[in-house]
């Protein structure tokens, strides 16, 4: 690989590589905000940066590299995350360090501390930027987390103070950064919603239906939603829960449908049919699901510990509730589903601001500005 004369930026992130590498099995999370960022840079005809996306995955046995839309994609092999974690990711850190010496980046942008990317960025001696993704320490303080994530949270305490510049997607996430790195130069940088969710026509079902896109993780607080929709007052309102398999929470009332994993196009279709989106999480830097719901034009009922509450104007475009308060959730659902026109009008409220702040263009312009600033110092 030869330098093009442009500034070389290496991006360490769990990029959804399976969109471009045929025959290599996908990972579990699609990370649509990374795809949005990639496409935005691809649309710049004479880019000032040479971008190298670097992803570690167990699904390859050797290094794979290719050019995709003017940007390099690199897959590096890795092994068990649990074993690597106990080894403080030393094999992965050495592998990444060797690769970075080959491409000689002018700037390293590491994304997320859920694996080795944060500690790899800490090792790097050049200019660097870290993007906060999951607030693992903050999550562990608010809900039961898997042992792996509890151990991984400890890495945040050494990674965050070592980062000269940190980006976070919400004010809630910025607060979690400053808890561990009080002097951090932390910037608000929103992650875009996927383009498929904008400018679609809502067609609410005749029977009121609310949508959740979540997981069975304790932090997502699905039992509170189930408890609310199990109340007689909400027996006429359906709750469709994507991302949670049937039987996960035992027998549930007929108005609660656990749909399992859905494809992206199926999620979009459900959102168009919904009357409201529900997310009573115990903690969340985002999530992307709430942003997608607002991009569709859905009113949202979210918890006070949800970073994406910045897109909800109480009583106007949704409601902000205490995470564990079933009564507040029931009351909010009754208000937003009292008639179809109210659901539609609440979804339209403040839509232009949400669409602007969740656009890939704004995401691109902000990160381009941050790159330029860091490189100029």
Q: What's the topology here?
A:
Layout: E1 7-12, H1 32-42, E2 49-57, E3 64-68, E4 71-77, H2 81-86, H3 90-103, E5 107-111, H4 117-123, E6 128-131, H5 136-142, H6 147-159, E7 166-168, H7 171-180, E8 186-188, E9 209-213, H8 222-229, E10 238-242, E11 256-260, H9 264-273, E12 276-279, H10 288-296, E13 300-303, E14 318-321, H11 326-336, H12 340-348, H13 351-357, H14 360-376
Helix pairs in contact: 1-14, 3-4, 4-6, 8-11
Summarize the structure.
With 377 residues, the protein is α/β, with parallel strands linked by helices. The protein is 37% helix and 18% strand. It has 14 helices and 14 strands.
Describe this structure as you would to a colleague.
The protein has 377 residues and is α/β, with parallel strands linked by helices. The chain is 37% helix and 18% strand. It has 14 helices and 14 strands. An 8-stranded mixed beta sheet has the order 3-4-2-1-5-6-7-8, with helices on both faces. Strands 11-10-9-12-13-14 form a 6-stranded parallel beta sheet, sandwiched between helices. It is globular and about 60 Å long. The mean pLDDT is 95.
